[in-house]
Amino acid sequence: MSTVLPNGSLTQAAERKRGIGRALVKSIREYPMVYLGSFIVFVLIVVAVFAPWLAPYDPTKQFANGLTPDGMPVAPNHQFLLGTDDVGRDELSRLIYGSRVSLEVGIFATFISLVIGTTLGLISGYFGGVIDSVIMRLTDVVLAFPFLLLTMALVAVLQPSVTNVFIAIGVQGWGTMARVVRGQVLAVKSFEYVQAERAIGASTARILFRVILPNVLGPVIVLAALSVGFNILAEAGLSVLGIGVQPPTPSWGNMVSEGLLTYRFAPWMMWAPGTALLIAVLGFNLLGDGLRDIFDPRTTTHG
Amino acid sequence: MAKVLDVRGLRVDFRIDERYYPAVHDIHFHIDEGETLGLVGESGCGKSVTSLAIMRLLGPGTKVSGEVRYGGKNLLAIPDAEMRRIRGNDISMIFQEPMTSLNPVQRIGTQIGESLFLHRGLTGRAAREQAIQLLQEVGIPRAEEVVDDYPHQLSGGMRQRVMIAIAMACNPKLLIADEPTTALDVTIQAQILDLMRRLSRDHGTSILLITHDLGVVAEMCQRVAVMYAGQIVEQGPVREIFKHPQHPYTIGLLNSIPRMDGPRTRLTPIEGNVPSLRNMPRGCRFAPRCPHAMDVCRAQDPEPVMVEPGHDVRCWLHAPVKEAR
After folding, report:
1. What's the predicted TM-score (pTM) here?
2. How many whole angstroms separate alpha carbon A271 and alpha carbon A210?
3. Distance between CA A296 and CA B19 in Å, rounded?
4. Full residue range of the structural domain in which residue A224 is found
5. How many structural domains does chain A have?
6. Type and span of the H or E element at A29
7. Domain ranges (residues) in chain B
8. Any chain B CB within 8 A of the CB of A211?
9. pLDDT digits over A87-136, tens only?
10. Mean of pLDDT values over A29-51
């Protein structure tokens, strides 16, 4: 144990570096879907961030030639790659800008759920007893409440806007997170390193956030990725119903909603945002599912 | 010599189905400065519970009473914040299972630094350098690299060394080692015990060594306390107890291990099992298994009796006859 090879340090460092590279290659081969998912998510983020540079036109500009002489949307052509909508705006530009709303709502709503759910789950799992019962019953209530009904009520009270939509979605999405975190905490808190941390004089808050939290984060990350996809869909659903993001701000949801009215003569107006939604949600779900497989080697249903 | 720790009448009750049962009962012992005291007994006799009670680390559902005197204070009566300052600083602890005693998601250096930050206010470079120095002191080769490793990159013996480094980080007066070598193989055991003995000597740290291995006690300790079913049945200097054990349980314990010296004889086990918490015998707790049990043993719990200065035994065989009634 106390003998060291003369070049022991060198070989070890080299081995470590090679190990990481090999592990990456191996994981790509083993979990191709994670990489497809990450790729979709990455593209989505790039599109949203660089929307002003990527979009050919201003998404709210109405073009004189954006409508046919009898006032119908223009089908896809070389000027309007995805056609125009019923007031003569470029569909592609709206789609590109719409990705911002989708991502914003998806990520911020998830973030809100994450903060509430993780905090309550940590407290519930760690302290147990009455506190645990109260928090878990509260979670049951939130989980049992019809999502759409509560969101409609919340948005109606708060006024529909991007911010209010993600708040409304976020404050309801924490139920599952709280449960998952609580379960993980119950498992982690019995490990000796938690006891050891207390034995060196750490306070409860320190133990919760510096020791337990990092150790329960794996499943939470998985859940967050899946939840972003779900929240994007939730925003779209609300916008289709007209209580989500309001026009003229383009969102994939309200684009589908507008397309619905003119579907019979301008189907591209629904296909474009619909397909975008499908791909975006697919991306986050693949990512989440894949991460779950990576974090939990026991599940064999990956790829 | 001055006493570092003085435990008087310690009692721990566990709640089982709305009732409290004493898991540890009427514990008296002390540890002198620089001394290593062994606490031996079989699994479930309350050794670990005793150590956790001293550190006030027992969870809800337990009731602790009695006195644990350290530095002129009763540790069981001081506020939580004050107890936190004592843990890791004055009294620190190492655990049985080195594989699970380190946080898997933090680097070794960070975990050592934690203690240095909490009690010395060290951060960043200073903490890191101190951590490397501690790793060197506990005999870890390539300390400058290991400081950036994660626990899973180290072997069990190395991890136990890291645990010792964390425990010794603030130069504590007392180190409680709860079966520190049980999970390790024999060669590593010897190294870890050597390390503990060296650190104890160099820093004047007292050790409360909890173990079920009498060999470890013989090698490490000056005095030993033998526990059975939540009580200390006999305590005294190691040589004295190994040569002239007085309590039938201690005698049984010593007869059940092989000896290197003397003639080879059959090992004699102690018949029967440890009584469960829920049905403790009314009198002496060892009576049902004791070859010398008398009527008084089954009726009344004996008090500790001094057979020689510094050597106590809790047994009716040694009680003055008049008191036996």
Report:
1. 0.77
2. 47
3. 40
4. 29-51+85-295
5. 1
6. helix A8-30
7. 3-90+172-324, 98-171
8. yes
9. 778 888 888 888 888 888 889 999 999 999 999 999 999 988 899 999 99
10. 85
